Amino acid sequence: MKIALGQINPIIGDVAGNKAKILDIYSKGVKEGVDLVILPELSVCGYPPQDLIEKKEFREAVYFASVELAKATNDVGLLFGSITEKMEEVGTGIYNSAVLCYDGKIQFVQNKTLLPNYDVFDEVRYFESAKDVSVYNFKNENLGISICEDIWNDADYWKQRRYEKDPVQTLVEKGATVLINISASPYAFGRREERRKMLSVLTETDKMPLTYVCCTGAQTDLIFDGASMCFDSTGKLCLLGKSYGEDFLIFDTKINYEEVTEVEKSFEEEVLAALIFGLREYAAKTGFKKALVGLSGGIDSAIVTYIAVEALGKENVHVVIMPSQYSSEGSVTDSQKLIDVLGISSSNISVQPVFEKVLEMLNPEFNGLPENVAEENLQSRIRGLYLMALSNKHNYLLCTTGNKSEVAVGYATLYGDMCGALGIIADVYKTEVYRICKYINRNEEIIPNEIIEKAPSAELKPNQKDQDSLPPYKILDRILVMYLEEYKELKEIVVEIKDEKLVNDVLNLVDKNEFKRKQAAPALRVTKKAFGYGRRFPIVQNWQRNRL
Amino acid sequence: MKIALGQINPIIGDVAGNKAKILDIYSKGVKEGVDLVILPELSVCGYPPQDLIEKKEFREAVYFASVELAKATNDVGLLFGSITEKMEEVGTGIYNSAVLCYDGKIQFVQNKTLLPNYDVFDEVRYFESAKDVSVYNFKNENLGISICEDIWNDADYWKQRRYEKDPVQTLVEKGATVLINISASPYAFGRREERRKMLSVLTETDKMPLTYVCCTGAQTDLIFDGASMCFDSTGKLCLLGKSYGEDFLIFDTKINYEEVTEVEKSFEEEVLAALIFGLREYAAKTGFKKALVGLSGGIDSAIVTYIAVEALGKENVHVVIMPSQYSSEGSVTDSQKLIDVLGISSSNISVQPVFEKVLEMLNPEFNGLPENVAEENLQSRIRGLYLMALSNKHNYLLCTTGNKSEVAVGYATLYGDMCGALGIIADVYKTEVYRICKYINRNEEIIPNEIIEKAPSAELKPNQKDQDSLPPYKILDRILVMYLEEYKELKEIVVEIKDEKLVNDVLNLVDKNEFKRKQAAPALRVTKKAFGYGRRFPIVQNWQRNRL
Question: Which of chain A's residues have a Cβ under 8 Å away from the Cβ of B547?
């Protein structure tokens, strides 16, 4: 069987646009003489549509588009992801469906059985689970069709399974001869290799070829890498779709392919590519042409500027240097060096005159109280004020520059450096920012070495260094990874880090700064546990009191 | 059977504190000679604990506290909500449980069957559904124990049921003689009357008394009103717990009670009480003593100031008047009148000198472009800057003053008037703000009539009025209610509102301003569909393009 995979980039809610994309891929498949053209999960409406699904008119528009797609088919099959709805006595009757059409009609619908409802996924909120699973005979093959999560519960692979049912096993038992999975799987570093491994074991065990088609594109914070995969019945990866972009593949189950071995590149290369793609996508889908970055002379704003240039082109990136009395000389000269290397436009606007004016106005209110975080935050907020004014005046997309380590411990000013539409590196730890900068500089010095080598500082008071308030980033990041991603608590972390007070303080900082993260810009997600939608903690809570 | 209901206010994650509260209520019940003391859903850890549940150490602490609670019991029963965990082959093995103890031991556990996973609820994210449901014989009664949602699927009451199973029906069939439901049910106006109605039908149909114990307190944005209810076997409401506060009730299933008829007061009275309670709770649980409000002379900041005074006391509320060149005379004089009536402290800090200084600094960057939203937002952001500086310096809780109509259409400045820790009236439409102000003034003029009667204005450019950019609030709010709460789309709304372009524009504003709401402070929830956690829309989406 010859199957064409349409690795498309749908826009959420743009039913007409997505339909046109699907039709285009179908025509291409027909021209290439394939038997079947397949498209990703929910490709008619984009993934994740979230509460749009609760709108009846939205579901109707999606279903109507599906019927129109069916009408456009000849004898070549077209399989795509859509929403279907049934009148049922109990529940919503709404399904996440794979719709198979040919000869002008919807011929078969397989609903999704396993609905992920963890991390960034909320599918039980919207969908009912499939009542049954069947194979469908088409052109002398028994198609075993499943949707994303359906294939992630293989008893041969997982020690602890999430779900009772195994719909793919059911398809195999019912005589499937070709497995098809249509997916929308957000990227995190390591995920692609996981997909390959699991699907390889599954196809080898079940002795069955598999075509696994994924969508691509970024939807606000979620980056869908694409990287569709085709396996033969020995578990061999035969075809691999492009990462971070649309692709069109044809898989012939009768051909003996060379094995594809490399599915994921180095951490630095992958994450950098993902972030560039994520920003480019956000700008494209929201209509921004130009990006704005506040350049501090530090490594975070430097890498964000580099990413913006890669994403939008150097002519579309503007940076602003905003020195204050506490700024080091390097904050300007190092920034200027980066500006020159990247060839971008820049402004230099001092924070000082406004800072002084604000302090003068607030003087009666500050009652001669000693300087504290109020004055520090003020400088950061004046910078935010400048940046937002430029963004409003010139329609720049303001990039937020905070890294994951800072965001975690709240080492950032709400309404100050936290201003912006999108957190470009808010899911990248500080130590990883360094690694990626070194990767960027692998052939030539792009990010100035001065920026990489200087001690990190917020420069909000005299001679301030990050390490005055925080442990060294190497230690901090290790604690954070254990806490945020490995779900370890105080006692377990202390086994490795030894210093109980230090660990306790870091965990308390993380918990207490939930209120800041609640008001943070969405953060491009590149780890399996990012701040934002997939991590949900109460602002008001006292679990931390149960520690020391 | 004599049952004591402990309507407590747990703090999320404060396992030791909650345990002490439960023990205290138990002692009180024992002293009163009751047979059984019951406490709300998840009372050991507070509700909703969200992703704290994913921490093994947290679950262990909660379970360990449950065992200790059991150890403290004599022959009087103690029933409370907790987390239990089982080693199971499939799934997480984590349950939302009702734990019954006496004679020093956990004697019986009933897990929750129906896990709400809509609006603000995410229980499928954490819990497995109960494998079975049983009655438990205790002191010659068969207790039919259920947890919150378990009782909300009555086939006699609901036309369309959400779930297949009906655990309370099962309990009745298995011979229950007394029904007990332990709950954590967030308030929205109308919800209390709904509870009474549904539970009354259920107890009348099943001819079974019911004790329904709810928690109280606010958890960030969610307000739990309490209002526990006891019904006899004829569907009569016999006892009603206090609203917005802790309570202790004793229900004797053998006594013939007078019927309680009024369960909910007027919209104005209920919502005002809920908001005062919500703010007081947020301050208490986060350790803030004093609140800060930016007073514009408009009705929103006026009502928020009144609420703050009611919540924290007049000595703990400070307001700031921040006039600019566009401020009307009334913005100062009307504010001053309110300050005098409420007897609170205030500051007056002009925005003008800083506004001018910022414009001077930005002049080269603005390139002589015409004034636009950049200058308007600047003024709002300078006010935010002042307020945050005072908050940082004096440890004030900054109250956000935007109403639901504004938040819906994005008529607010991100990092400007949207600054603050908690949206006090962000779930109250503008027309409702007026209604509540009139209620506040029912006996004497507290909110100055000048403030109520003036045309709403942001005062960010000369002679600006809200109605220059927005339809009259009466029409806007009606459109918003239909769109946000009744799930109607363009065509259906136009049937009532007639003006298709107007409706289309409003819906587009709502959708396009999702990016602002993503960075908004949490909003005290008083409707069934509030912005925030319970309403999840993608920022990047083009569904609105499918309209006109």
Answer: none
Q: What is the pLDDT of residues A22-68, one digit of tens each?
A: 999 999 999 999 999 999 999 999 999 999 999 999 999 999 999 99
pLDDT reported for residue A463: 87
**Right CATH for B270-466+513-541 from 3.40.50.720, 3.20.20.370, 1.10.10.10, 3.40.50.620:** 3.40.50.620
The string of DSSP letters for B382-447 reads: HHHHHHHHHHHHHTEEEEE---HHHHHHT-S-TTTTT-SSEESSTTS-HHHHHHHHHHHTSSS--S
A-chain residue closest to B372, CA distance? A393
Instruction: Specify the fold of A270-467+512-536.
Output: Rossmann fold (3.40.50)
pLDDT greater than 70 at residue B528 = yes
At residue B372, the pLDDT reads 94
Inspect the interface and report whether the beta carbons of B541 and A14 lie closer than 8 Å: yes
Q: How far apart are the first and last CA of chain A?
A: 63
| Whole-angstrom distance, CA of residue A522 vs CA of residue B537 | 13
The two tokens of residue A353 are 């005159």
Convert the pLDDT of each residue in A287-311 to its tens digit.
999 999 999 999 999 999 999 999 9
Q: Averaged over B140-169, what is the pLDDT?
A: 93
Nearest by CB: A52 against B161, B521, B543:
B543
Contacts of B124 in chain A (CB under 8 A): 117, 124
Rounded to a whole number of angstroms, the distance from the CA of A11 to the nearest CA of chain B is: 6
Rounded CA-CA distance B21/A72 in Å is 66
Residue B367 is predicted with a pLDDT of 85
Mean pLDDT of A395-410: 98
Mean of pLDDT values over A457-479: 91
- What are the structural domain ranges in chain A? 2-254, 270-467+512-536
**Among the partner residues A163, A374, A546, nearest to B393 by beta-carbon distance:** A374
Predicted confidence band at A159 (pLDDT cuts at 50, 70, 90)?
A: confident
Domain A2-254 has CATH 3.10.450.50: no
Active site (annotated) includes residue A148? yes
Residues 6+ apart with CB under 8 A from A206: A168, A172, A179
Nearest CA in chain B to A16: B546
Q: Which of A21, A41, A488, A516 is catalytic?
A: A41
- Look at residue A547 and tell me whether its pLDDT is greater than 80: no
Sort out which chain A residues have CB atoms less than 8 A from B157's CB and list them. none
Asked if A58's CB is within 8 angstroms of B543's CB, the reply is yes
Q: Which residues of B touch A16 (CB under 8 A)?
A: 545-546
Please state the ipTM of this predicted complex.
Answer: 0.96
CB B52 within 8 A of CB B93: no
CATH code 1.10.340.30 for B2-255:
no
Of A475, A459, A525, the residue nearest A189 (C-alpha):
A525
Same fold, A2-254 and A270-467+512-536: no
Nearest-by-CA chain B residue for A285: B540
Q: Note whether A503 and A497 are within 8 A (CB).
A: yes
Backbone angles phi, psi at A142, to 5 degrees: -95, 105
Does the pLDDT at position A367 exceed 90?
A: no
- Phi, psi (deg, nearest 5) at residue B486: -100, 5
**pTM score, whole prediction:** 0.97
Contact A389 B372 (CB under 8 A): no
Average pLDDT, chain A: 96
Average pLDDT for chain B: 96
Which of helix, strand or coil describes residue A418? Answer: coil
* Residue A324 zone, left/alpha/beta (φ > 0; ψ -120 to 50; rest): beta
In angstroms, the separation between the Cα of residue A416 and the nearest Cα of chain B is 8
Q: Which pLDDT belongs to residue A160?
A: 85
Q: Is A485 a catalytic residue?
A: no
Of residues A354, A388, A538, nearest to B12 (C-beta): A538
Nearest CA in chain A to B164: A90
